[in-house]
Amino acid sequence: MPDTGHLEHHPVLEPVLDVGDLLDDPRTDIEALCLCALLWAPTAAAATVTELLQATDFHDPTHGDLFTLLATQVHRARPHDPASLAAALTDTGQAAGHHGTQLTRALARATAAGAAPEAAGHYALAVATAAYRRGFHTAATALTQAAQQLPTNDLFDHLLTIGQERRTATTRLRQLRDALDPPSPPRRRPPVPAGRRRIMSRHHHHAWWLPVAGPRTPHRVHPRQLLPRLGRRRPQSARRVGGCTLLAGTLDDHYSTATITFTFTHGPNTSADVQVDHVVPTAAT
């Protein structure tokens, strides 16, 4: 009978995560995600992306070839789902040989990447941006090689040629951003109703419209021109600036969902429910 009293227990080693494991995961490959989103995107969205993106934007030549096949299907108004692309590979003879195996595997990886179809434009822009940055690495390498091999008199012209190519690439990337990721429209205030002016609360949390009387609009009406200050009564002329008289207002309270009507008069008749800080003229809105 074997002696078990001296058995040693070795700890179980955890598998080491290699960088190649992340590279092989299509969920972390922006090019595979872009292809996946295009495979499941509606025809109109896929057509927009395939018209702007190019096969040369893909770092992996296999992804570029797969994108070319997908773009051909879209432009011919044919289905561009994974099964249709696999059938197109077989029909065109591209599924044969070693390159065909690579295309088939790339199609399978892209199909399982799990990208959202509505994010096709976002992924396409990311692919184009990565290609744009690689272009600068290529330009730096070309300049280094030119400094070693080209005649001295040709170096500056070579630099200008590279600079013009980078300028063209920069213009194209801006156009892609405008088409695939347009900026959000600026926030605009609602139009000013006829015969009214905009008034802000004390902490600028809400805004209301006040009816006015008089042909002119003052640049600013301060609190001391609206309510008594330190218990002293302000003269009637203090509420009239530039021929414009403040009359009343209506507040739609967002907290109580109540509608409060208030007036601007001195003394006990002044509405206490609304405290006015200052009035902003229409020209400032």
Please give the number of β-strands: 7
CATH architecture of the largest domain: Orthogonal Bundle
Distance between the termini: 96 Å
Helix content: 40-55%
CATH fold-level topology of the largest domain: DNAb Helicase, Chain A
The CATH H-level homologous superfamily of the largest domain: DNAb Helicase, Chain A
The CATH class assignment of the largest domain is: Mainly Alpha
CA gyration radius, whole angstroms: 34 Å
Q: State the order of secondary-structure elements, H for helix, E for strand.
A: HHHHHHHHEEEEEEE
- Total number of distinct structural domains: 2
Sheet-strand content, in percent, reads 5-15%
Query: Which residues form runs of ≥5 with pLDDT under 50?
Result: 200-243
Shape: flat
Alpha plus pi helix count: 8
| Spatial order of strands in the largest sheet | 3-4-2-1-7
Mean pLDDT: 76
Biggest sheet features: 5 strands, antiparallel
Alpha-beta classification: alpha+beta
